[in-house]
Design a protein that fits this description.
The protein is of the alpha+beta class. It has helices at 2-16, 48-59, 68-73, 76-85, 131-143, 197-211, 248-260; strands at 40-42, 63-65, 93-97, 110-114, 125-128, 148-153, 158-165, 171-175, 220-227, 233-240. The strands form 3 sheets. Strands 3-6-4-5 form a 4-stranded antiparallel sheet, with helices on both faces. Helix 2 links the parallel strand 1 and strand 2. Helix 1 packs across helix 7 (248-260). The longest helix is centred in the N-terminal third of the chain and has 15 residues, at 2-16. 29% of the residues are buried. Mean pLDDT is 91; it is low at 183-192.
Amino acid sequence: MVGRDEAILRTVAEHLDGTLYTVSFIHEEDFTHTTPMPDIVLHMARSPRVLDMLCEWQKAGCRIINTVEGVRNTQRASLASLCTAQHIPAPQTWIVPTASPRPDKITFPCWVKRADTCAQEPNDVCYIADAQEYISCLSRFSARGIRTTVVMEHLEGTCFKFYTVRGTDFFHCMPTEELGYDKFSKTRPVQGVHRTEQDKERIGHTLKAQFSNLDLQLDVYGGDVIIAPDGKARLIDLNDWPSFSPCREDAARAIAQLVTKG
């Protein structure tokens, strides 16, 4: 996904560079305390080191998109707590230390995800059918040095992706199966149903109303929801600054608009 992520940043830069702004790029690994502070930073940073430095810039008056607080809110353990506190519809979720799996407290089937960040590799998100598989999965997470997992009940229905830029009219959503690629090139056992264009338009209006203005200190974000057979939508994942691959040009214009209007 590195190429897709870079593409949205560069497309936004094309809309900004030479207007009111001069745009330059810096790799996360090259960002240090001697890097000159600009007026605005658009970023996909994940490392604690860089986020801490961006937090200092934020305190000094630099405009950071997305805010450091917003990025940290998307860490899965934090997001699960915020969904409960803000009544954001989501599956039943448990925060589970890998050293203490307690399968008797979990409903199967379920999904096990690392709690500290978004998925970086296929083994960061695992579909689990039963208690034995669950215990083995948490043992593997523990062996990788991951201390905490988010365990989420499995929901039947159709998976939709959405993308939004707060403060603008931009919102895009689509069934995941129409995305054209799978981040990890594997099929996950989510039961889908055929949707007409009218169905998808109706679902789009519902998702926009529910998820385009979440109070998570994020301006640029996207997520995955499961649409149940009864039509209810539940959030299963949220990403600060996704790649916007199916709608990159429109998203870039909206992000540039967000920047220029302050």
